[in-house]
Amino acid sequence: MKMAPILRALDAYSNVCTTLIHTGQHYDANLSDVFFQELGIKSPDHFLNIGGGKQGAQTARMLESLEATFEAGANDGETFDRVVVVGDVNSTLAATLAAVKLGIPVAHVEAGLRSFDRTMPEEINRIVTDSLADMLFVSEPSGVANLRQEGHPEEHVHLVGNVMIDTLRRMLPIAEARNVLQKHGVEKRQYGLVTFHRPANVDDSQSLSRVVDVLKWAATRIPLFFPIHPRTRARLEEFGLWEELAKTPKIKLLPPLGYLDCLALTQSAKVVITDSGGLQEETTVLGVPCITMRPNTERPITTESGTSTLVGNDPQKLRCALELVFSGGYKSGQAPSNWDGKTAERIAERLVAAHQSDEPAGLSDHAVIQ
Q1: If you count DSSP H runs as helices and E runs as strands, how many of each does the chain have, helices first?
Q2: Has 197 been annotated as catalytic?
Q3: In the chain, which segments carry CATH 3.40.50.2000?
């Protein structure tokens, strides 16, 4: 969702050539292939097929493979002027490390976001990536403040908006035309959408059991659609909770959804229960109540002026927030002004301008999007 609009924006420049590298960190077809198809992303120029594993081992395999890819390109005369990384996953960190060690500058899209919780692997990835990148594209004002506090030069920091929302605004009419609600037999604002997978929410049996109890209660009020992440399903089965959920009336367990179907269900939901940062942003733009199962967030604008409320995995807080939704007392919110669907254009403009200021006019650009 972050890569697609950036690639499209760079394609508008005739003197820019992009190389797309897919590490294979997300290797399940429902979490990877379907997004390439639905978002119209070109086939990767390099597919590294890294797969899963422990954090350190996975990152190490990525680092080794990415370094070889960058070096092979240089040996073949394919000089990379810049590596562009997005988000906060292990691929982001590995590509940044591999690039800067080879002297290739890095641009980070979604820079400056901080949860201030270093138990989150994503927080470590964000901090290290930002410390090494020299172009920092920021989605919200808190990110600018964080980067200033960390001592980044002002000329490195660019408040451009949220590239995720570029994809949302472009794809929303297509998602609406899929008639997903009719297929599931529900009406707009008459159901809830549930999706969570973070270790803090699924890896402890007692905590997960309490959340399941709240979901069963909520399903007595409205139907719930629950696309199950592979990690979440594994824990539900391990803890003996899968059958309990599957037998609960009005809870519909689904496989992981493609972007379009998930967007269609999000846009028309009465409430979204999630631990996804992306869904926090999307619900804020769509005006949908979002109960966020995290104790903190690196996207504070979604709680301060948006529609998100943090409840952690506290079942009482989750139930209270749901009661506000059901009673009509939940807060309203508004989207930030620069979440306007044109973020990728601003990013591409700055990338090209920065390169042209350093190189002779007319030199062909060659960017890597990871």
Answers
A1: 17, 13
A2: yes
A3: 3-162+338-369, 169-327
Assign domain 169-327 to its CATH superfamily. Glycogen Phosphorylase B; (3.40.50.2000)
Can you give 23-41 as a three-state secondary structure string? CCCCCCHHHCHHHHHHHCC
Q: Which of 108, 152, 158, 197 is catalytic?
A: 197
230-258 confidence digits (pLDDT tens): 999 999 999 999 999 999 999 999 999 99
Cα–chain center distance at 34: 15
pLDDT confidence bin for 34, thresholds 50/70/90? confident
Sequence-distant (6+) residues with CB within 8 A of 355 are: 81, 82, 363, 365
Q: Which fold has domain 3-162+338-369?
A: Rossmann fold (3.40.50)
d(CA 289, CA 330): 7
pLDDT higher than threshold 50 for residue 287: yes
Q: Tell me the C-alpha distance between 216 and 210, whole Å.
A: 10
| CA pair distance 31, 26, nearest whole angstrom | 6
| 73-85 tens-digit pLDDT | 776 777 799 999 9
Place of tokens 């995995």: 313
To the nearest 10°, the Cα dihedral for 230, 232, 236, 238?
Answer: 70
Distance CA(357)–CA(4), nearest Å, equals 26
Average pLDDT value for residue range 58-63? 96
Residue pLDDT, tens place only, 186-211: 999 999 999 999 999 999 999 999 99
- DSSP letter (8 states) at residue 258: P
